[in-house]
Amino acid sequence: MKVLALLQSAALPSAAQPAVVGVALAYFAGVAAIGAWATRKTRTARDFFVAGQRIGLFPLALAAMAATVSGFAFIGGPGLLYSVGLGAVFVVLPAAITSAMSGWVLAKRLRLLAEVRELITVPDAIGARYRSRLAQGLAAIAILVAAIGYMATNILALGLVIDAIFGIGLNRAIWLGMGITLAYSASGGILAGVYADVFQGTLMAVASTLVFLFALQAGGGGLEAISRTILAADPAFLGPWGKLSPLAALSLFFVFTVGTLGQPHVIHKFYMLRDPRRLRWYPLVMALALMLTLLLYVGVGLAVKALVVRGELAPLARPDDATPVFLLRFTPILLAALVFSGVAAAIMSTVNSFVNIGAAAITHDLPVALGRSVANELRWGRISTVLISVAAALLAQLPGTLVALLGIFGWGLFASTLVPALAIGLNWEGATREGAIGSIAVGLVFTLVFETLAYFGVYTFPAGVTVSGLALVLSILVFFAVSWLTRRNAETALDPDVRLVMEV
Questions:
Q1: pTM, whole model, 2 decimals?
Q2: How many CB atoms neighbour CB 390 within 10 A?
């Protein structure tokens, strides 16, 4: 499903102009400087994986926002809105809801667990909650597999953007983008990633706001004029569901509202917060940052549709061309340059987050699940970062539709394996280790099997029904059913200090 991954099957329109290239080079230099600074600050595995737990609220919220929206908000999202109308907003409407939910049901508990148990990963929290190495190990496997697949999709998208800017060919662009991201990820760890995300998140919010203003002007002088133009030619476009069926729109809303609670590259950042008492402001700060960043998503999609209706633009050959075409024709070149750099920034922030949690799964979680310990987690964390990055870059060379499958599979796997055991389990004392293990295993197997079968055309679901949504529902049902059947074990699966954290 296209909305789950930023992926273009062909090159983006060329943006290889001196101003665009210059801004991109300046951006990459800024990222390099952040990486060099963070390397000097990264001395332990806790520094590498959770930034020494010394990140303030505003950097945390901006980093979480940058990892959440990725490049989809700038390229895939406007193209989706141009194609299906207002139904596309059901992908982003959950953003404010989810930021509040994650702040209330996950952030405080994860941060306090880090204090009482010195945890540094999401599987760590699952292992502590259920006193189960098996649950922790299964969660680590799911995260590792999904992270590499999702990274491949994002690296391909990054390569497409870099190729559009520098015109060096897709394969070279993939390795260049991965190399830049890897340089600061392997040296400075998540500390470099967080402050690069702050830089990137600020860039994204500023660029999105400016582009939205130009979109209003180009579309006819405001939202009212844009709406009148579109309604005269295509009333369904602005209907409550757009051109989607009600089932498809509501399915998107469900998957992105509930499923986002299981995205480890975002919730892992809660471990890093310096002062848990500041979390009460997290939903507000996160919602405001998302609101600004998503202005481009809505503005460009609507403006390009209005421009096509009025005949000022030819119908797009591909929906994903909406943002590049609009930028290059209707905004100042420096703003276009800022947005192209912002797209690269958004994708790089997401890749950095995934490579960090993947390295943690290899270096920390899998050894813990096997009852082993790694002598030098910092060194092996850096080595694992390199290995995961190279593997993902190699996968990104595969045919585009297969890479898209990896992205869809990754997002759905995160949701189906982590939402029940973590988001629900940290708020329900009746959850059992058997329920957690069952839900993680079912989510892992169901998502892998049915996404693969769907890719090869063995079956098709009704329009609007997705494997990700069904896997999430099924894993939640298994979690509750197995926990109820094994409810006598609930007391033994909960340590007193974990219970206290859950009751706070």
A1: 0.86
A2: 13
